[in-house]
């Protein structure tokens, strides 16, 4: 019998239970996958805690990304076959040794990319792709501020942004993370535990501030992030590791310089099969070229998912973390 992590009640990492799991047989348009590596993301903690409601309610199997091998396909599936190496960002259910998934959410993993790298980069890497190339398409000469530069998305984002020719400023919470960010493309790194990041941004830019701020931290960096933007600059909020941004009066955007603000999610940028494949292709290309290197810095057994969640929320992890079934 295969195993999976289930959440029967919302709460802290202790609610993650390692249980028997029968994935079943794939139906029309579906595939049965045996996972070899599963990506860990802050998003997983939101579903576990109940901050984000699970579409199908409780119990739930967390996780949205993984890599593995196709074991069996259902009727009408001809773009993948048994034996193919695949990866995905899909609906909940990745914290399992085996799972059924809609086959149109699968992309083939090219030669030269390991299963661990694929599992750990799909959500984070395609997030970096849509942020840099579509939400605010950066161009050479732009000045960019990215919060949580030493996180999983941040390390991919930094390398990719460097390739695109922007002036890149990152924020981190420790000297160790500052060094990590500098090694991954950030020209300037601000340790917000020791410095006022708004004042430092103004100093770094000579008062010109930034074209765009990318923020996955949330409560702790708002509204100060708005003071780092030029007139008609863009604030991109795509996460809330410190807690959600509290309600605010939209007039603050005009007061701060006719600013734009958006709250994008990856799943709305890869909603169609064509969008998914294009985003994955862009990610695979930049990784295979060597411009972006995936750093799997932590590995946990799937059975130890609670420890992985505790370390993630305790800011004890850097870069990419994977669970091994």
From TrEMBL:
Keyword field: NADP, Oxidoreductase
Coiled coil: none
Keyword Ion transport: no
Presence of the UniProt keyword Nucleotidyltransferase in the record: no
SMART domains, per database record: PKS_ER
Enoyl reductase (ER) domain ranges (all copies): 11-323
PANTHER family the record matches: QUINONE OXIDOREDUCTASE PIG3-RELATED, QUINONE OXIDOREDUCTASE-RELATED
Name of the featured protein: Quinone oxidoreductase
Source organism of this protein record: Neoaquamicrobium sediminum
Organism taxonomic ancestry: Bacteria, Pseudomonadati, Pseudomonadota, Alphaproteobacteria, Hyphomicrobiales
């Amino acid at each position: 019998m295969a195993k999976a992590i289930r959440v029967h009640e919302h709460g802290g990492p202790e609610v993650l239970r390692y249980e028997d799991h029968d994935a079943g047989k794939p139906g029309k348009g579906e595939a049965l996958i045996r996972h070899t590596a599963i990506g860990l993301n802050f998003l997983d903690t939101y579903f576990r805690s109940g901050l984000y409601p699970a579409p199908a309610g409780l119990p739930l199997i967390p996780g949205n990304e993984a890599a593995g091998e196709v074991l069996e396909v259902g009727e009408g599936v001809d773009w993948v076959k048994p034996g193919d190496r695949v990866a995905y960002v899909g609906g909940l259910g990745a914290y399992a040794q085996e799972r059924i998934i809609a086959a149109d959410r699968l992309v083939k993993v090219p030669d030269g990319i390991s299963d661990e790298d694929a599992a750990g980069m799909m959500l984070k890497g395609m997030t970096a792709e849509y942020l840099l190339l579509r939400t605010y398409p950066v161009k050479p000469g732009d000045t960019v501020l990215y919060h949580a530069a030493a996180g999983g998305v941040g390390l991919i984002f930094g390398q990719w942004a460097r390739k695109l020719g922007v002036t890149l400023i990152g924020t981190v919470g420790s000297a160790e993370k500052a060094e990590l960010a500098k090694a991954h493309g950030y020209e300037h790194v601000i340790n917000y535990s020791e410095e006022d990041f708004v004042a430092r941004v103004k100093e770094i830019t000579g008062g010109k501030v930034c074209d765009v701020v990318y923020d996955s931290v949330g409560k702790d960096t708002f509204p100060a992030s708005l003071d780092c933007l030029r007139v008609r600059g863009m604030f991109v909020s795509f996460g809330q590791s410190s807690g959600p941004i509290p309600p605010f009066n939209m007039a603050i955007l005009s007061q701060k310089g006719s600013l734009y603000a958006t709250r994008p999610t990856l799943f709305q940028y890869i909603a169609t099969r064509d969008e998914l494949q294009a985003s994955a292709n862009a990610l695979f290309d930049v990784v295979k070229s060597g411009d972006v290197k995936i750093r799997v810095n932590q590995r946990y057994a799937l059975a130890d998912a609670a420890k992985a969640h505790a370390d993630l929320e305790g800011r004890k992890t850097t870069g990419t973390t994977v669970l091994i079934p």
